[in-house]
Amino acid sequence: MWREAIGRLAEERTLEKEDFLVLMEELPREGEQELFRRARETARSVFGREIYVRGLIEISNVCRNNCYYCGIRRGNREADRYRLSREEILACCGNGYSLGFRTFVLQGGEDPAQDDRWVEETVAAIRMRYPDCAVTLSLGEKTREAYRRFREAGADRYLLRHETADPVHYAKLHPAEMSYENRIRCLWDLKELGYQVGTGFMVGSPYQTLDTIWEDLQLIKKLRPEMIGIGPYLVHHGTPFAGRKNGSMIWTLRLLAIFRLLYPEVLLPSTTALNTIHPEGRSLGILAGANVLMPNLGPAERREKYELYDHKRSTGGEAAEGIRLLETILGKIGYTISASRGDYGEHGVH
Ligand code: 5AD
């Protein structure tokens, strides 16, 4: 059963629901190794052994939203809030640039103080100073007009996970003032405005089932994002989901492999959450088909405050030593860091 399922996935790049269930539920160890092997061979045929790095700057942990899973939700009184000034952000970019980063990801909560105009001007300032760099935003749900202005100012990419493609599940993860419809509206607006779009979901979030994950796959098939970000759901003690179970690393890795086989050219990060749930999660993700890492370039003293989940691990890379350590870790599994911007489609399928 599983052999045929992997064969169809790897050779025809299609996945029927039955095969999907086999791969998630009935894969023996040997089958899992085969799935990961096919996925990493596919990644190598497109990207070689180069891993793209994106410098992540967590610009604010102030958030007007109250998502039940997230540690920086509005309702978490314990969170020690901070926001970076434009000058601090530019300094992070400068540090990243000298370390070789050519793409910066500004990620943050939906902080009302960093309003549309502020974001627009910040993007413009980065573009002015680093014209050869790509700017990615990951700042949540905005109006179409705001997304248009950010794009005009020079933002190239936008990351917004859909979190779940099942509206009923969505309502169990978010308070009533948030809507699945608006999330999806945002994603289509971003696509239409010409962004390279990243979406994705947490694996093992409360109330998630294989049926909802299947819906995630169907949404991704329709949207055709340039990047798919997935990582295990991890509990945060200051949320309504405190005391729940963490998501599964195994399922995360299998899903990475499935996405790699379905979409050979898609950008697949090996996420911080994956590296938090397992000390070698980052490498395991790459060996299951991931091809992107997002080391944190933010100021060290702020980093631990951007606590989406408990025990969040800091991905080295922020300092020169961090980058060397990352190179050593990648070297052990036979990979190197790419010097390119890593735009989607840059490699083409070989
Ligand atoms: N565990 C794992 N991932 C989380 N995120 C938010 N909270 C958690 C958590 N507790 C993810 C969401 C969000 C991204 C920035 O981080 O998917 O889109």
Automatic annotation (TrEMBL):
Signal peptide as annotated in the record: none
Residues where [4Fe-4S] cluster binds: 63, 67, 70
Pfam families per the UniProt record, alphabetical: Radical_SAM (PF04055)
Amino acids binding (3R)-3-methyl-D-ornithine: 138
A GO MF label: 4 iron, 4 sulfur cluster binding
A biological process from GO: water-soluble vitamin biosynthetic process
Binding site for S-adenosyl-L-methionine: 163, 183, 234
Coiled coil (UniProt feature): none
Cofactor note: Binds 1 [4Fe-4S] cluster. The cluster is coordinated with 3 cysteines and an exchangeable S-adenosyl-L-methionine.
The keyword S-adenosyl-L-methionine is annotated on this UniProt entry: yes
Protein name as annotated: [FeFe] hydrogenase H-cluster radical SAM maturase HydE
Lineage: Bacteria, Bacillati, Bacillota, Clostridia, Lachnospirales
